[in-house]
TrEMBL record, chain A:
PANTHER family: TRAFFICKING PROTEIN PARTICLE COMPLEX SUBUNIT 13
Stated family: Belongs to the TRAPPC13 family.
Trafficking protein particle complex subunit 13 C-terminal domain sequence ranges: 338-438
Trafficking protein particle complex subunit 13 middle domain ranges (all copies): 198-319
Protein's recorded name: Trafficking protein particle complex subunit 13-like
Domain Trafficking protein particle complex subunit 13 N-terminal: 12-194
TrEMBL record, chain B:
Name by which UniProt lists this protein: Trafficking protein particle complex subunit 12-like
Entry superkingdom: Eukaryota
SUPFAM superfamilies tied to this protein: TPR-like (SSF48452)
Gene label: LOC104716262
Matching Gene3D superfamilies: Tetratricopeptide repeat domain
Species for this entry: Camelina sativa
Stretches for region Disordered: 1-37
Ranges annotated as biased composition (Low complexity): 23-37
Comp. bias regions, Basic and acidic residues: 1-20
Lineage, top ranks: Eukaryota, Viridiplantae, Streptophyta, Embryophyta, Tracheophyta
Amino acid sequence: MSATQTQTQGPHSLAFRVMRLCKPSFHVDPPLRIDPFDLLAGEDFSDDPSSASLFRRHVSSADSLDSDLSYRNRFLLNHPTDPIGLSGLLLLPQSFGAIYLGETFCSYISVNNSSTSEVRDVTIKAEIQTERQRILLLDTSKSPVESIRTAGRYDFIVEHDVKELGAHTLVCSALYNDADGERKYLPQFFKFVVANPLSVRTKVRVVKETTFLEACIENHTKANLFMDQVDFEPAKQWTAVRLQNEDCHSTEDPSASALIPKSPVIIRSGGGIHNYLYKLNPSADVFGPTKFQGSNILGKFQITWRTNLGEPGRLQTQQILGAPVSRKEINMRVVEVPAVIHLNRPFLAYLNLTNQTDRQLGPFEVSLSQDESQMEKPVGINGLQALMLPQIEAFGSNDFQLNLIASKLGVQKIAGITALDTREKKTYELVPEMEIFVESD
Amino acid sequence: MFKESSPAKDPDSPESETRPEFNPSSTDTTATTNPSTVQTAIDSDSLEATTFESASSEVTSAAADLPPERFNSLDELTHDLGSLHELSTRGSWQAILEKIAQARALFLLTKPHEHLTYLTYQVMALVKLRLSDEAVHELNSLHDFDGTHYRYESFPEIYPNRKGSMVPFSLRWLYALIPTKLGNRQEGLDRLYVLLDFVRDRIRDKESQNLDDSVELWKKRETFVMSCLLGFHLGHKEFGVSLDLIKELINRDPLDPVLISKLGSVQMQFGDIEGAKATFDRVEKMLNEGKSNGLLDETQFKNLVGRNKALVYVVAKDYVSAVKVYDECIERDNSDAIAVNNKALCLMYLRDLSDAIKVMENALERVPTAALNESLVVNLCSMYELAYVNHTDVKRTLNNWIARVAPDDFDSSSTRV
């Protein structure tokens, strides 16, 4: 059960025995048990009711002779559900197993005196050593164990929340006086490696005013993970709502559904995934400049999973970033478009031009940029191809309308609209590009 | 005396010279030509059986429509069946194999169903002794289960007025199970699902013929096969399928506290603690309201609820409370091996390895037939390995004791000696 161990000095009176104490597990072991009716006679024997009752009588009279050495519980069915093999018997962990970031390492440590004489004044220490630090789990130096008799033991249990990846070493050491009064030092090292249990891949998509966040959680462990809690904590400037299918339990088995109200989210071991979708909206209480000056941090995930017998693991992700926020001097964006946009029919788009600097800028000329390809843009300006906008003061903004027309069906982008600062001769692009859906007439 | 035909080694052509009248001379002739024939003593009622058409499913009145031959003990049904049954409950599988070999060598089995019963015991013994490849060999000697070879009506002179299949259901089940014992899980699962379909067909069959006793029996078999399948899926951590199966089982019998407790255990196994708690609360409510399907007596029911409660404490790491509840269970029923085992584990998680070991050893001494199971032994050996630097000696002592007391099918590799 213990990992590698090394000793530095001569023959020691003491020795450490170590056993990882993760939660015990249910032993699932379908037994070979039968109903005597299924063995002692043919399967259609009871078609004849008198045979059936006769048979029952003979079998029960045979069973009433209860001998001393009866292992009938290993052969005859006790309860119809015995074949499931889930008796409720708990089994101790049989191997060290794998350990992952976010879990709790728990271990039983026993110091045995395997010599023929007593040892005295025993100071025991247990620490976890990683690449970065040394964490003390137990130290009896303030009140050393007075003595451990021959064949005696001193036991303790240590716990440590695993917060680092990579190699870890459990260092157990004992400082003691042996039978000859010699002060001896016994260190033992038990190594284990901590791996990453999950990876979280995110995708951010902006549709009109709403930002959608899709997160895919992949399970890299050897166990199936029950996702107890997956919470997205949005940054201050956002509010988030989880989007999920309402569990459609039809009229079937009302009694059983009451017991299992919703299908649990269990991600399969070794590469299983589960997706989560969130709708993010800017918080109501955040206005103006902060929205644009602030970072594009959307928030982070807090994940709690459980394995066998509820053994928990907890992790949080790094901050998830949204679409890059323009830090340009001028920001131009589409605020609103009509709900329905038809092919070749002009529609009004509401835009906003914001001055993010501390000085007055403009006046501006807003037009569709002419690029080299001369290809007709799917969304163009209808009517006058240029619009003049007055100056905008520091940190101010200007709302304006553009008459647009779409010449292609389907999902199209409003792109290529530029604002030219006529004084400073600087051009600013429409950001972000807005997607619209063009229907036929 | 009903004269027996020649030993039915060749079921296709049973050479039956059946005469209902007692004919001492013909008996002697048979005796000289075939000394190994065994005469079966049958009730005088059956003499009249052959004069009736075999419409055996209608039992209108005792005189008008007689049932198939009566049997006054298991031995009358099949040669030495009582002894086989007793040996099986003692776990003396080697003795059973020897008995079967002897019966065959001395041609003691005469009726077709006896061969089938003995074959089933043989396959069962081989699988119990973890000799499944030999079991396959025996199964290969069988004809198709659903053919005419194994139907009572194919031998009207041996089984007057009896219809149906003489194949013991356990044989069908063993046939389905064997591939999994040999590592071919997929084939085993397929066969079990086919078996489930077969059982459901039989239920519909018997229902249409109003054979109530049989319907009840086949429904039990349906639960049996479903439970087997559930065990296999659970063992492979296939929780989706397992939950579906257990839901189906609960629908069949919503008042089974053992079944519902198993649902709670499954939920705990994959980590849904809140769900498990709710399920266990339901079972406790059933105890308090006196609602159950009657398969448990009061002590068993209370212990079931107690063990469920203790599990919730174990999950919450409140081992002290868990031990208290387990102690109550053990006081009610000192052969509750699950409570004993789990209590010992709790003591160990409370840093009290010595008492944990004592609890296990005491149980093995006091109630060996209840406590001796492979999982308990594995746990005890893990504790020995932790407690003693030189644990080989103490494990060997345990091993020797097991060898004296354990049944033939006990897996002694569980001591890891």
